[in-house]
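User
Take a look at the entry that follows and flag anything odd:
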Amino acid sequence: MSSQQQKPVIGFSVGDLNGIGTELIIKTFSDHRLLELCTPLIFASNKLINFYRKSTPEINFNYQSTKDFTRIAHKQINIYNCWEEEIAIVPGQLTDIGGSYAVKSLTMAVEALRDRKIHGLVTAPIHKKNTQSPSFDFTGHTPYLKHAFNVNDVLMLMVSDNFRVGLVTEHVPVKDIARYITREAILSKLNILRDSLVRDFGIDKPRIAVLGLNPHAGDEGLIGKEEEEIIKPAIKDAKNNMLVFGPYSANAF
């Protein structure tokens, strides 16, 4: 297999058309060295890309457009045209059009990922308000991807160099967080995290620290009982099949 065939094809959804997504993608791939690592396939339209390309004339951004996954150019940036019509683009404004076409870009990219036409997906930011509709009733990318791939649970990860943080909850009002902290939820997220650290990050025996919910991890029950009643028992159960420790004080960690 040639090096060109081995490069992963990575899809990019553009997010809110009036947001920062398309501009970020253009500026990112102005560094042509990235083409040595992957073949980018941007789910958008030529007209959208050209609009933002004109606003950054100092950047050399060339691409080929396609509607056929078998005709992706592996030495170039590729635009997969999701729509042809003229649409209003007003940077910085929250509009229904900006949200509906963000969903169109995302859903077509996810369909390509599900059909194994691409190897991975990078999602530019959407706005939760203007993407809501009867056909897209999700609070963000994570619950939508859970629905699209019909899986029991998902884990949002924040990654920076050698530090990786998995979240038990996401997009939950602060006043409601405690009721989502259950033994079952913690164990499910720990299993996903352990498997990801091994499979995606190449860590043979990952060591996972679990943080507390309350200040000072509850101070032995003086500042909340979730650590004693829920988190510690979950950690004890998880020790049967992974290296897991805690709970540690989140504010000190």
User: Anything to note?
Assistant: Residues 3-148 form a domain with the Isopropylmalate Dehydrogenase fold (CATH 3.40.718.10).
